Amino acid sequence: MKVTKGFLNVIYALLIIIPVIAIFFATFKSNAEMYQDVLGLPESFNFGNYLTMFSEESMGVYFWNSVIVTLFGVSLTLFFSSLIAFAITRLSGWPGRILFGLFTLGMMVPAQVNMIPLYQLVFDLGLTNSLTGLILVNISVTLPVAVFILTGFMKSLPSSLFEASRIDGASNWQMYAKVAIPLSLPSLSATAIFLFVMVWNDLLYPLLFITDTDYKTLPLALLEFQGEYMTNYPMLFTGVIIASAPMVIAYIFLQRYFVAGMMAGSLKG
Length: 269
What we know:
Layout: H1 2-26, H2 31-36, H3 48-55, H4 59-90, H5 94-108, H6 115-124, H7 131-154, H8 159-167, H9 172-183, H10 185-200, H11 204-209, H12 218-221, H13 233-268
Helix pairs in contact: 4-5, 4-7, 4-10, 5-7, 7-10, 10-13
Protein name: Carbohydrate ABC transporter permease
Pfam families: BPD_transp_1
GO cellular component, one term: plasma membrane
């Protein structure tokens, strides 16, 4: 049984890593070389595609735009969602259940249903073609998910801790900042990683709200390499590698926090 499971794991790993290796090698090819031999090794490891990305294709601007949107979007979502989750856990009876239910309903509405009214709202506010508008949209979209995750964890915190803090004279803000947040750090870390992947890879909302080149994010910028009759696959794959690098680095350094958050939620839920 163990041998079969190990063999299946190896097959699964190969199915994932082989396309990744093929894409990585393709970034060193020219477009003509790519069409001549799709899976073959490059004739030489030429970093011209990477240099072109940052010198001619404004990849540095797109990368920085993605960093700004992701950093502010995830940070503000975590702040607001943790406040809301704390409020829900402190509200007893039907008010807390109704508030939690409203945010849960936000997860059930497909993004495509909201496209027209959301665009009209952002347009009326004058926030189209701006990173500020994109950040606000990402916050509104990811907030229900973050509230759902953090509420489930905060409900597992012992109420005796908050009662003891109240007896000691702590205000609601002090209980939130000095009791709930420190105990919720594993869950906050796991939620942050989850939100990072969602916002960093988002294409729908940049495609909907951004038309100015100066405000494009990485996923939207990658569409420039797809033509109607021919696609520049080496440049496209180079952009994919550059866009994927932050997620790989984040996973390598933060995976223990992600696992700790998931384990904390499973053990306390």
